[in-house]
Structure formats: C-alpha cells, structure tokens
Amino acid sequence: MALAESLAGRSSLPWATRAHARAADRVVETPWRVATGADFIYPRTGGRKPPGTDRLNPYLERVMRAAPYDERVNLALTRVQLLLARPETLLAPTVVARTLFRTPSRRAAPVEAKRRVPDSAL
C-alpha cells in the first residue's frame, strides 16, 4: 500500500523510490522496534537499547503467557503479530487488566483455536 501511494502521480522513478522508502519506514518502524527490543532478553545482545525496552519486555512476556488462556488477549496479540493492529493495542486497558490481573491456573484450558472474539469485544 505504501508503494502504491508513493508512486501515485509520480513519473520520476528515483523520487518515487525515496518516497516509498520514507513511507515504508513509517509502516515498519514500530514493529521493528518491538522485534529488536525483544533481542535484549539475551545477555550477549549488544548495541543501543530502544527506549522503554526494560519495561516493555517483561510485560510482553506476560501477554504471551496469558494469550493461550484468554481470548481477548490472544486476539489482540495475534492481530499485532500479523501487523493488523499496532503494538500499542496491547496496552489497551482491557488487555492490560486481563494480562496483569488474571493469572491462569495450571489447570486452565487453553483458548480453542476455532472460537473467535469479535474485534468490537476488544
């Protein structure tokens, strides 16, 4: 989509290429930060840590642990992983509450894959 928008009405290929690169950068910036920030769970990871990594990684770990047991957390995480929703949706009050205050018991059954929570439920 970013490519189509950057090429619309442009005849100069070099200009369109730069425009596409800028548009693509805006699309992938946040998912890239989340993905590279996750690398810092490994002690040997070097380089500059993205801001907020030390706060975000433990929370994302809890989201991933809650997702198999909570339909709404599962749907929110899946939509973010498939780039259908921005990572900030994992910070929605409903998702945060279900992640932080509902600790699944060892006997809790995982979410059934065939069941689906409508987007409006988030």
**N-to-C order of helices and strands:** HHHHH
Number of strands: 0
Major sheet: size, sense and barrel closure? Answer: none
Query: What's the shape?
Result: globular
Structural class: mainly alpha
The amount of beta strand, in percent, is under 5%
Helical content stands at 40-55%
Question: Which labels suit this protein?
Answer:
single chain, 122 residues, globular
Structure commentary:
The protein is mainly α. The chain contains 5 helices and no strands. The chain has helices at 2-7, 13-38, 53-66, 71-81, 93-101. The protein starts with a helix and ends in a 21-residue tail after the last helix. The model has no long low-confidence stretch (mean pLDDT 78).
Q: Layout of SSEs?
A:
Elements (H helix, E strand, L loop, with lengths): L1 H6 L5 H26 L14 H14 L4 H11 L11 H9 L21
Helix pairs in contact: 3-5
Short description:
This protein has 5 helices and no strands. It has 122 residues and is mainly α.
